[in-house]
């Protein structure tokens, strides 16, 4: 499809915003509409579990574009309205209105995953309103129970500890963040939590909720002044019928959704060639590809996936895709041998090829490995390069 008259972007998060910006950057002059379930104009989510939760930032600082700025970009906004149905060339909204478009981009992101029978008093953290509600609690409590030791749970724990709150983290796996970092680097992330004063408990199974806390499989309970569940998110796709969206919307390399004519997907809801990435940079990279595909232009060069997490004064960074790696290769620092965490860098090898690199408080080093990951350097080349840094 080239030169559609109207592009409708459903989802006013980072992916949706970057899509409309990229469309204009290509020179597209047609109509653009942006639908968002929240009443807020597009804002940045990474600070929610960090600067907003600690109180260092006020909500307005997270803003990416105001409604007025979007209007100046020629984008009509429909905020505070959920998409409730997708049909060929049209999207129905929660107020009963129907928007018609030649090209539709789905960028609705995730909703926080909840546990069975989770009480309304238990917090989740996905939206700006979620962050403000939890921040208000942190101002008046002495203890916090965090269910889930992934990056969100760890960031919440870090922010709470910075405010002097006692924190307990319960993680079902042997190490926190191991789904993203693997067992070895996940264990290092666990050290970061415990050295930051967190009571980290791994291999813990929750059987239900009790007053002020949770019940565990061993019959014990863990309670605190407040509880937050941070166990990831679920793609917000229950409004789309006719396709299997259980693993996200299946897309080809240009973001076109399989089985839905004239529909693209970006961000957390999109499974591009079998990969669904929930990372900040991926949303922007995908938006650039989709915008150009919509107007019939060549895709920009492929990029290396990148992710970061700020915890306990350190920046954890990951470039590449570690899933499928069969070896962890220490490159810098001694954190994996029990030494200081800061400055530790390790590579992930799959079949002897470098597929990812992760670092803890080593931003200068991590940036240097991007080309090696892109080229799939072998083990010897990675070690030789590390020796030069």
Task: Write the CATH fold name of the largest domain.
Answer: FAD/NAD(P)-binding domain
Q: Tell me the name of the CATH class of the largest domain.
A: Alpha Beta
Number of helices: 10
Secondary-structure-based class equals alpha/beta
Number of β-strand runs:
25
Which CATH architecture of the largest domain? 3-Layer(bba) Sandwich
Count of domain modules = 3
The major sheet is characterized as: 5 strands, parallel
Task: Give the percentage of residues in beta strands.
Answer: 25-35%
Instruction: Give the N-to-C terminal Cα separation.
Output: 47 Å
Question: What best-fitting shape do the alpha-carbon axes yield?
Answer: globular
The average pLDDT score comes to 94
- Residue share in helices? 25-40%
């Amino acid at each position: 499809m080239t030169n559609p008259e109207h592009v409708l972007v459903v989802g006013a998060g980072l992916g949706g915003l970057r899509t409309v910006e990229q469309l204009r950057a290509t020179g597209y002059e047609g109509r653009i509409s942006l639908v968002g379930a929240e009443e807020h104009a597009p804002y940045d989510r990474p600070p929610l579990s960090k600067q907003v939760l600690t109180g260092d930032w006020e909500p307005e600082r997270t803003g990416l574009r105001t409604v007025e700025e979007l209007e100046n970009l020629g984008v009509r906004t429909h905020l505070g309205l959920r998409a409730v149905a997708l049909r060929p060339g049209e999207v129905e909204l929660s107020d009963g209105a129907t928007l018609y478009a030649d090209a539709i981009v789905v960028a609705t992101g995730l909703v926080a995953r909840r546990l069975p029978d989770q009480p309304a008093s238990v917090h989740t953290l996905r939206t700006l309103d979620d962050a403000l509600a939890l921040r208000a609690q942190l101002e008046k409590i002495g203890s916090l129970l965090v269910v889930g030791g992934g990056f969100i749970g760890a960031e919440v724990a870090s922010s709470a500890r910075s405010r002097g709150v006692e924190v307990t983290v319960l993680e079902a796996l042997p190490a926190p963040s191991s789904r993203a970092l693997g067992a070895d680097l996940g264990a290092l992330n666990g050290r970061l939590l415990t050295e930051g004063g967190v009571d980290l408990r791994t291999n813990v199974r929750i059987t239900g909720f009790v007053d002020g806390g949770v019940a565990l499989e061993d019959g014990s309970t863990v309670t605190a002044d407040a509880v937050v569940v941070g166990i990831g998110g679920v793609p917000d796709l229950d409004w789309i019928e006719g396709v299997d969206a259980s693993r996200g919307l299946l897309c080809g390399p240009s973001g076109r959704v399989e089985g839905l004519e004239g529909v693209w997907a970006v961000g957390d809801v999109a499974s591009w060639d079998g990969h669904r990435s929930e990372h900040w940079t991926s949303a922007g990279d995908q938006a650039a590809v989709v915008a150009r595909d919509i107007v019939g232009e060549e895709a920009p060069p492929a990029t290396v996936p990148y992710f970061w997490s700020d915890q306990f004064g350190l920046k954890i960074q990951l470039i590449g895709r570690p899933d499928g790696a069969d070896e962890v290769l220490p490159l810098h620092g001694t954190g994996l041998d029990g030494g200081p965490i800061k400055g530790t860098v390790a590579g992930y090898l799959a079949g002897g090829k470098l597929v990812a690199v992760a670092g803890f408080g080593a931003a200068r080093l991590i940036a240097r490995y991007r080309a090696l990951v892109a080229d799939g350097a072998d083990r010897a080349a990675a070690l030789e390069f590390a020796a030069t840094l």
